[in-house]
Specification:
By secondary structure, this protein is an alpha+beta fold. The protein is built from two helices and twelve strands; from the N terminus they run H-E-E-E-E-E-E-E-E-E-E-H-E-E.
Length: 183
């Protein structure tokens, strides 16, 4: 058996330090969606053969890590039959002072300074679930990202791929909710 490496001691020390200080992990919650539970009709797309409310769920978060300067939210379906999944929503440059997004969020009622990227429906807004009929339910991964930068400095209409790159370069922590939906 080889001796422990310095990196193993550092990781263990950081974990113990977090426990000793009572550090909490970033938490994401919603009165509208739950892990593993089906989405409501309100969160289903209106179009492409689907008839739902196309309304984003209300989202709340707490316990952002020290150093958080902004947040971003991504909503992604990894089960879409595209070879690259399907991006339903990206919101970024959410101020660090915010701790929620309203139900039915639009550019008009997002926290001041927040921006939306382009989704795979081609709009800069929430695009609800609309998986192909007859397939197993798809997963819709709502991920809140705590970021170490005040803004992502993304160009208008940025794609989800570009936003993902910028988010991953600046992420301090993340939390997810993964409801499902099939038809």
């Amino acid at each position: 058996m080889s001796p422990p490496r310095l990196s193993q001691f550092l990781v263990a020390g950081l974990a113990l330090g977090a426990l000793a200080t009572g550090a909490q992990a970033l938490e994401l919650s919603s009165p509208d969606i739950r892990d593993g539970s089906p989405l409501n009709a309100a969160q289903v797309y209106s179009g492409f053969g689907c008839s739902g409310g196309n309304q984003s769920p209300e989202l709340h978060w707490q316990d952002a890590p020290a150093g958080t300067q902004s947040f971003a939210l991504t909503v992604y379906d990894p089960d879409a039959p595209t070879g690259s999944g399907w991006w339903h929503w990206t919101v970024f440059d959410i101020p660090a002072s915010s701790n929620q997004l309203p139900r039915g969020a639009t550019a008009k009622n997002l926290p001041a300074g927040s921006q939306q990227g382009r989704n795979d429906y081609g709009s800069q807004s929430f695009g609800g679930a609309c998986p192909p009929a007859g397939n197993p339910p798809h997963r819709y991964i709502f991920t809140l990202h705590a970021l170490k930068v005040p803004t992502l400095e993304a160009p208008p209409g940025a794609s989800a791929a570009l936003l993902g790159y910028l988010i991953n370069n600046s992420r301090l922590a993340s939390a997810t909710l993964t409801p499902v939906y099939g038809r």
